[in-house]
C-alpha cells in the first residue's frame, strides 16, 4: 500500500511538489521542455541567485543542463575553432577541462596554482602564461577558475577574485567560473563569493565581461550525482553569441526533467518560515559538518606522516598532499622505467589496496625543476 503523502511529508513540501508539477508540460516528468529548461524552474534559480548575490538575475540567462559537464562541453564547442584556440586552465586541474579541450580540438594553456601560498592564483603567472601562448600563435579565448578548488580545496579571497575579473576584462577573455562546491566552505576565515557578484560589484554591465557560471546537483551537500542536474548562467554575451549558445543547447532538445527540478531546489531550498525547514537545515548542517570533520582529519593525518606536507582544507571535498620521495625510491622507479609518482601510486596500491592518482594525472609539476626527481604529489 502506498501511504498518503500528507502522512509523511510536510504541508509546504506537498505544496511545492504541486507547484512544480503545474510548471511542467503535461504535469509529468516524461515530456520535453524548452531547450533552456522549464521557465518556472529557471525563475526559481534566478531568484536563488539574486538572493545569494544581492544583484538581479534573469531566467533567460540560465540554461539547465545534465550536470555541469555538458555546460562545459557546450562552451568549449562554442569557443574552440581549431588547435590555435586556447583555454587557460588551473593546474592542478580537474581533468574535465583538459579532456573537453582535447575533444573539441583546442589547446590547453596551463597556469599553475601556488602551493606555497595555499594554492593561490597569481595574476602575474596567469599573465605570463597568456603572453607565452600568444607568442606561439595561440588565440587564448577564455580563463577557467574553479572556486572552491578541485582538486586543491582552496577558497579564493575576494580581493583575488576582483583581480581575476579585471584581468579577464583587460585581456578580452571569457571567464568560465566553476562554482559547484560553493556550499562547501570549512575555513572560518573564508567565504564564497560568486564571480557574478564580483562582476556586478565592480559596476560592470551586461556587455562588459562575458561570464559563464556553473552549478551542479552532484556536489555541495546534496550529492545527487546520478540524477544529472545543473545549470550554467551566461551573462555579458552579445545577442548573436547568445543565439549560437541556444542553437547548440537545442541540439540535445532539453536536459532531463528530474535534474531540472533538483537544480531548482538546490538554488531555492525551504525558507525559515516553512514547516520542512528544520529537518532540511538539520540534514544540510549535518552533512557539511561531517565533510568538514573528515577533511580536517585527513589534513591532520597527512601532517603527521614523514615526507608529506599538505595545505589546510578550506573548501570543496579535496586535499592535495605533496610527497617527498627518498632517493632510493627515485632509483627504483627509474629501474622500473616508471615516473616516480606513478611508481609510488602502484606500490601503494599493491601494499595497501588504496587507489590514488599520481600528481601528474592532474597536470601537477614539482616545485622546481631542480627538485623534479625528488618531489611529487598524489
UniProtKB/TrEMBL annotation:
The keyword Nucleus does not apply. Its cofactor is pyridoxal 5'-phosphate. It catalyses: L-alanine + 2-oxoglutarate = pyruvate + L-glutamate. One of its GO terms (molecular function) is pyridoxal phosphate binding. This is alanine transaminase. Pathway: Amino-acid degradation; L-alanine degradation via transaminase pathway; pyruvate from L-alanine: step 1/1; Photosynthesis; C4 acid pathway. Homodimer. The lineage of its organism: Eukaryota, Viridiplantae, Streptophyta, Embryophyta, Tracheophyta. Keywords: Aminotransferase, Pyridoxal phosphate, Transferase. GO terms for biological process: L-alanine catabolic process. Belongs to the class-I pyridoxal-phosphate-dependent aminotransferase family. Alanine aminotransferase subfamily. Residues 26-363 form the Aminotransferase class I/classII large domain. Gene3D superfamilies: 1.10.287.1970, Aspartate Aminotransferase, domain 1, Type I PLP-dependent aspartate aminotransferase-like (Major domain). Its EC number is 2.6.1.2. Pfam families: Aminotran_1_2 (PF00155). InterPro entries: ALAT1/2-like, Aminotransferase_I/II_large, PyrdxlP-dep_Trfase, PyrdxlP-dep_Trfase_major, PyrdxlP-dep_Trfase_small.
Amino acid at each position: 500500500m502506498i501511504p498518503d503523502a500528507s502522512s509523511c511529508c510536510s504541508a509546504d513540501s506537498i505544496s511545492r511538489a504541486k507547484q512544480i508539477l503545474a510548471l511542467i508540460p503535461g504535469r509529468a516528468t516524461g515530456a520535453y521542455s524548452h531547450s533552456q529548461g522549464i521557465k518556472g524552474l529557471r525563475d526559481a534559480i534566478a531568484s536563488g541567485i539574486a538572493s545569494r548575490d544581492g544583484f538581479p538575475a534573469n531566467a533567460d540567462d540560465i540554461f539547465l543542463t545534465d550536470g555541469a559537464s555538458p555546460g562545459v562541453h557546450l562552451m568549449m564547442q562554442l569557443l574552440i575553432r581549431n588547435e590555435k584556440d586556447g583555454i587557460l586552465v588551473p593546474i592542478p586541474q580537474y581533468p574535465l577541462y583538459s579532456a573537453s579541450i582535447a575533444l573539441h580540438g583546442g589547446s590547453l594553456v596551463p597556469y599553475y596554482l601556488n602551493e606555497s601560498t595555499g594554492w593561490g592564483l597569481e595574476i602575474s603567472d596567469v599573465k605570463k602564461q597568456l603572453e607565452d601562448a600568444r607568442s606561439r600563435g595561440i588565440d587564448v579565448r577564455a580563463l577557467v577558475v574553479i572556486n572552491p578548488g578541485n582538486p586543491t580545496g582552496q577558497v579564493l579571497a575576494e580581493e583575488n577574485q576582483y583581480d581575476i575579473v579585471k584581468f579577464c576584462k583587460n585581456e578580452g577573455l571569457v571567464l568560465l567560473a566553476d562554482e559547484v562546491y560553493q556550499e562547501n566552505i570549512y575555513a572560518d576565515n573564508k567565504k564564497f563569493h560568486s564571480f557574478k557578484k564580483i562582476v556586478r560589484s565592480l559596476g560592470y554591465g551586461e556587455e562588459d565581461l562575458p561570464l559563464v557560471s556553473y552549478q551542479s546537483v552532484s556536489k555541495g551537500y546534496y550529492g545527487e550525482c546520478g540524477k544529472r542536474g545543473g545549470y550554467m548562467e551566461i551573462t555579458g554575451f552579445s545577442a548573436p553569441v547568445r543565439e549560437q549558445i541556444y542553437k547548440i543547447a537545442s541540439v540535445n532538445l532539453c536536459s532531463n526533467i528530474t535534474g531540472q527540478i533538483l537544480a531548482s531546489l538546490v538554488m531555492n531550498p525551504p525558507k525559515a518560515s516553512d514547516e520542512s525547514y528544520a529537518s532540511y537545515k538539520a540534514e544540510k548542517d549535518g552533512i557539511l559538518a561531517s565533510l568538514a570533520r573528515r577533511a580536517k582529519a585527513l589534513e591532520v593525518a597527512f601532517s603527521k606522516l614523514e615526507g608529506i606536507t599538505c595545505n589546510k582544507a578550506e573548501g570543496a571535498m579535496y586535499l592535495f598532499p605533496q610527497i617527498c620521495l627518498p632517493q632510493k625510491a627515485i632509483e627504483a622507479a627509474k629501474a622500473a622505467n616508471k615516473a616516480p609518482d606513478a611508481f609510488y601510486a602502484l606500490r601503494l596500491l599493491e601494499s595497501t589496496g588504496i587507489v590514488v592518482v599520481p600528481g601528474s594525472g592532474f597536470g601537477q609539476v614539482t616545485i622546481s625543476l631542480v627538485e623534479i626527481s625528488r618531489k611529487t604529489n598524489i
